[in-house]
Amino acid sequence: MSATVEFAKMNGLGNNILVVDMRGRADKVTPAAAIALNAVPDTQFDQIMAIHDPKAAGTDAWIDILNSDGSKAQACGNGTRCVVQALASETGKKVFTFQTVAGILNAVEHDDGTISVDMGKPVFAWDKIPLAEEFHDTSRIELQIGPIDNPVLHSPSVASMGNPHAIFWIDRDPMSFDLGRFGPLLENHPMFPERANITLAQVTSPSSITTRTWERGAGLTLACGSAACATAVSAVRTGRTGREVAVKVASSPNQGVLNIEWREGDGHVIMTGPAEWEWSGTLDPSTGAWSRDAAPGAEAR
């Protein structure tokens, strides 16, 4: 078996993604390889989307997802769009079904190049998110950071989109908060036994929200698709918006937008947005050693 595999450096609204082709192999991208790849500026990423041969009939692939710290992720909406674009370009297909540890994901590439991913049903039960304490109503839980009489952030909505999310509602630009300082404290708060993605959300109209996210296992990120979904459904639950919202990601290039629909009929969340190919190369999934394809002046790392 060859030591190296093909990969693509891609992004979804600036969310840095490595799509790694592990089809036809029994091994996996190791945590050590992920950490080594993330240590190099050219290959820094938020998630690795490793495409494996399908495990279940009727699916196109099994997707193994790693965070930049080498830990496993259950879901990555922006990364799923990148996988769709990569496979659509390779195969000419437009409709895909993937399996992940979080379940089955259906996706389609539209004629305009945008990609819709069915992210499934959100989960609100406190022990399924999971939380360390029981809350009957997870649309607002008791959690704050800052002085008790004047907290900086408080009373988040919590939900799971295959991974745990806490959404703090704010009344000004999310970029005005020092999320780089608060994010690690909240991600690792004892309330979240499996850690959590932390999102600041400013509702700007009944159909629009501006967000910024500290991503579990990745840190400050330019965009997070599952966080946009969790924010949208939590906004509906708390009466802040309707079931279709444009989520503007404040930290992404050009403040890109994800369109989120929480369908009333089956309760599924549909996320629609772009994906962008940047460059391709090969890497060793065991060590993370890599080289760039046909890039003048690039050297193997």
From TrEMBL:
Q: Which PROSITE patterns does its entry note?
A: DAP_EPIMERASE
Please name the Gene3D superfamilies in this protein's record: Diaminopimelate Epimerase, Chain A, domain 1
Subcellular location(s) of the protein: Cytoplasm
Q: Which domain of life is it from?
A: Bacteria
Keyword Zinc (UniProt): no
Per the UniProt record, the site (Could be important to modulate the pK values of the two catalytic cysteine residues) maps to 165, 215
What are the catalytic residues? 76, 224
Carries keyword Cytoplasm? yes
Q: Name one Pfam family in it.
A: DAP_epimerase
Q: Which GO terms describe its molecular function?
A: diaminopimelate epimerase activity
Query: What does the entry list as the binding residues for substrate?
Result: 15, 47, 67, 77-78, 163, 197, 215-216, 225-226
- Alphabetical GO biological process terms: lysine biosynthetic process via diaminopimelate
Q: Which UniProt keywords apply?
A: Amino-acid biosynthesis, Cytoplasm, Isomerase, Lysine biosynthesis
Q: In which pathway does it act?
A: Amino-acid biosynthesis; L-lysine biosynthesis via DAP pathway; DL-2,6-diaminopimelate from LL-2,6-diaminopimelate: step 1/1
Chain spans, region Disordered: 282-301
EC assignment: the record states 5.1.1.7
Q: What is its main location?
A: cytoplasm
User: What catalytic activity does the UniProt entry give for this protein?
Assistant: (2S,6S)-2,6-diaminopimelate = meso-2,6-diaminopimelate
GO-annotated cellular components: cytosol
What's this chain's function? Answer: Catalyzes the stereoinversion of LL-2,6-diaminopimelate (L,L-DAP) to meso-diaminopimelate (meso-DAP), a precursor of L-lysine and an essential component of the bacterial peptidoglycan.
Q: State the family it belongs to.
A: Belongs to the diaminopimelate epimerase family.
| Subunit field text | Homodimer.
Protein's name in the database: Diaminopimelate epimerase
The organism is: Rhizobium grahamii CCGE 502
